[in-house]
Design brief:
Elements (H helix, E strand, L loop, with lengths): L26 E7 L5 H9 L16 E6 L4 E6 L11 H12 L4 E7 L3 H14 L3 E6 L1 H6 L2 E3 L1 H8 L3 E3 L9 H12 L12 H18 L5 H10 L2 H11 L2 H4 L1 H16 L4 H23 E3 L6 H10 L5 H44 L4 H39 L2 H14 L6 H10 L1 H7 L6 H10 L9 H13 L5 H31 L21 H36 L1 E2 L2 E2 H15 L4 H9 L7 H10 L10 H10 L4 H12 L5 H11 L2 H29 L1
Helix pairs in contact: 3-12, 5-12, 7-8, 7-11, 14-15, 14-21, 15-22, 16-17, 17-18, 18-28, 19-21, 19-29, 20-21, 20-26, 20-27, 23-24, 24-25, 27-29, 28-29
Length: 713
């Protein structure tokens, strides 16, 4: 669901080369691992920070730092992005590779999944080719035990020649042995008797270059590994090597001659650069398989059969989409049903505080304009945003996190991969869509997991089509008033959730259409491939999910919304209470925009409400009420029935309601999201397009609905 204020520890860094130590004696420990092995959970348990965790890849999009202490050392723990290989193919994999290779960590802890050790050993072996201080942390030992998987940790340690510890990171007490192992490798340099069994021709080619790389690198990196990387000829890695070792690394005559000689040897034996990469990967995989066969035993070889049967249902062509929509509707129904009563309680609570604040200003003999601006303006808008946003977020975020923690979100990405590929976009965009439901700003930040700049821009420009939590109150209110009825009950809330789900499916369809059009025009290109792991299903930690969702997500998003709602309240009060020729600024704006609004099947008041709701979408409905009632202050009517009557008396029809829903789904991003887009793209052009594209789509749809309704009705 995206990054939070606590998710970056001492500071997130894109290159990993800046480390914040408490003292010069602190050791830097890199925490590496495949995606979805519990790496961030290990990080959180050791550092006490709240790096966001979940049962799907793509969480850590930069290096996160935190501090922990072993018995002998103070350590800066650096949680680098999850990667399957140091032969990087994406931006986050490059970040991981560059830190391990060039970030000068004092040791590297490679976290592995005990239920899929063979696959994880590939990264372990590649790391051991670079560093002589490696600790292997075999995590999720409890899950492996439940599935009848037994790992001989002592034999694995003897085979690899490095410390190997077993942990269940959710149980913090199991991490003591990991801290001891870190002390061990920090205090005693390991002379690894370790070598990947590459074909003889590759070994000979490496040997030709090895002496020269040892001379130039001066033991700052394993000479054999440097020689292999030169032969592999990865442009991005060669560039990093040159910066790390100095330009003479590439221009040294003796090294240049040795490299040519080695390349000629490979060519004479029919090994091209692409073939060499395949040979390296194959050798690693075969060695990992051999080690796994020696150290892993299974009580039930078909332990994963149950997960696969569930996957056939949740990702099936016929059932996958149906389950997705049904679960989405269920989440919305629970949110709609559970949020009403707490919202009323909060509204009454803040109302009582407002009365006391108002009385305080009166006793202090403050001017009416100051009392109105601060109490009726700033405080009322702020309290409205909190009372409207907090209850649904406190329900929605934990529910969505439970789906995430159980391992279902990667299945959603798998289901949506094909539609996004047909739009010439990356399937990872499905993950950013999921983040956008909670907060579009978080969805924008989450687009960092997409390595292609073109596809990342596609995801950023279309993320706002996903309605965030702040737009749900308006959508739910309008749907309830005009298409269900204002009576409460389980049936009404179910219908509201069903219609809300239908509206969101429509917005996703438009999002994909816009993505396709952009990929054929402004952002031409073909979709890139990526690795998406379907992790094992896990029992969610319900208590931890609730606590972390409330503190890391709900309160964080709420605080960000409140920060813009307070000044927005002042602006709203000014527009409603400053008069020019007998008319308020709000009334003048509404009258000026009324012709455009009518053409779109709306009116001037509705458009002004959306414009003034730019800092916080939650204020759109109360702004409409304030303008229609000409009250001069933000007003919350007694209930939906009174609001419905007010809207109808001002010309609203079911067509108006439909267009309000469409425009709420498709209009400019809120201020927080827009600022985030500017930071992520670094471009005024793309930021402007992120405003123009959804607004244009919403306006066109509203105009079409209005014209069709006039022809039909």
């Amino acid at each position: 669901m995206g990054l939070t204020k606590n998710s970056v520890g001492y500071g997130a860094v894109d290159s990993g080369l800046f480390i914040k130590k408490r003292s010069d004696s602190d050791k830097v420990i890199a925490l590496a691992g495949n995606p979805n092995v519990g790496k961030s959970t290990v990080f959180n348990a050791l550092t006490g920070l709240n790096q966001h965790t979940g049962n799907w890849p793509g969480k850590t999009v930069a290096n996160a730092q935190g501090y922990c202490s072993t018995e002998k050392h103070g350590c800066v723990l650096v949680d680098i992005p999850g990667t399957y290989s140091l032969m990087a193919h994406s931006a986050e994999e490059e970040v991981a590779r560059n830190f391990i290779c060039f970030g000068k960590p004092d040791a590297v802890v490679v976290v592995c999944d005990a239920t899929a050790l063979e696959r994880n050993l590939n990264l372990v072996l590649q790391t051991m080719e670079i560093s002589d201080r490696v600790v292997v942390c075999v995590n999720l030992m409890d899950e492996a035990a439940r599935k009848g998987i037994n790992i001989d940790l002592k034999k694995l340690s003897l085979t690899l020649g490095v410390p190997v510890v077993g942990t269940s990171a959710r149980k913090k007490k199991t991490l003591g042995s990991l801290l001891d192992a870190i002390d061990c490798v920090l205090d005693k340099k390991t002379d690894l008797d370790f070598e990947i069994n590459y074909p003889d021709t590759v070994k000979k080619a490496v040997n030709i270059i090895e002496n020269e790389t040892r001379r130039i690198a001066k033991n700052r990196r394993t000479a054999k590994w440097l020689a292999l990387k030169l032969l592999e000829n990865d442009p991005s890695l060669i560039k990093e090597l040159a910066e790390f070792t100095g330009e003479k690394f590439l221009t040294d005559p003796a090294l240049f001659s040795a490299r040519q000689q080695a390349e000629n040897l490979l060519y004479e034996n029919g090994i091209t650069p692409d073939m060499l990469k395949d040979i390296i990967v194959s050798s690693l995989v075969e060695y990992a398989e051999e080690i796994a066969k020696q150290t892993v035993t299974y009580k039930n070889p078909k332990y994963a059969a149950f997960d696969r049967r569930i996957d056939r249902f949740l990702t099936g062509k016929l059932t996958g989409y149906a389950v997705m929509i049904a679960l989405l509707a269920l989440v919305f129904w629970l949110t709609v049903t559970g949020a009403n009563y707490p919202s009323e309680i909060l509204s009454e609570f803040f109302g009582k505080i407002e009365v006391r604040l108002d009385g305080l200003f009166i006793r202090l003999n403050s001017p009416d304009w100051l009392r109105g601006a601060l109490v009726s303006g700033v405080w009322r808008v702020l309290s409205w945003v909190v009372s409207v946003m907090l209850p649904p977020m406190a329900i929605f975020f934990p529910l969505f996190t439970l789906l995430e923690d159980s391992g279902y979100l990667p299945r959603i990405a798998y289901n949506l991969d094909r539609p996004f590929k047909k739009c010439n976009a990356c399937g990872k965009q499905a993950l950013t869509v999921c983040m956008g439901f909670g907060c579009n700003a978080a969805g924008i930040v989450g687009c960092r997991i997409i390595d292609s700049k073109r596809e990342r821009l596609l995801a950023i420009l279309t993320n706002n089509f996903v309605p965030c939590n702040g737009r749900f109150p308006l959508l739910i209110s309008v749907i309830t008033m005009f298409f269900i009825g204002t009576s409460s009950g389980a049936v009404s809330s179910f219908l509201a959730a069903a219609l809300l789900t239908g509206a969101i499916v429509l917005s996703l369809a438009v999002s994909m259409l816009v993505t396709k059009l952009l990929s054929l025009t402004l952002l031409k290109g073909v979709p890139s491939s990526y690795t998406l792991e379907l992790p094992p299903y896990r029992r969610p930690q319900i208590g931890k999910v609730i606590v972390r969702s409330v503190f890391d997500r709900t309160l964080f998003v709420l605080g960000r919304a409140a920060a813009v709602a307070a000044p927005a309240g002042l602006i709203i009060w000014i527009t409603a209470n400053v008069f020019i020729n007998g008319q308020s600024i709000l009334s003048i704006m509404s009258s000026a925009l009324d012709p455009i609004g009518r053409f779109m099947g709306l009116d001037g008041v509705i458009l002004v409400a959306f414009i003034l709701g730019f800092p916080a979408n939650e204020t759109v409905i109360p702004l409409m009420i304030m303008a229609y009632a000409a009250s001069g202050t933000l007003t919350d009517s007694a209930g939906l029935a009174e609001t419905f009557n007010l809207f109808v008396s001002n010309g609203w029809t079911p067509v108006t309601a439909v267009n309000v829903i469409l425009f709420s789904l498709m209009h400019w991003p809120c201020s927080t999201t827009l600022i985030t887009i500017k930071k992520e793209t670094g471009s005024i052009k793309w930021t402007a397009l992120s405003v123009i594209i959804p607004t244009l789509c919403g306006a066109i749809l509203c105009i079409l609905v209005n014209l069709i309704s006039k022809l039909v009705l």
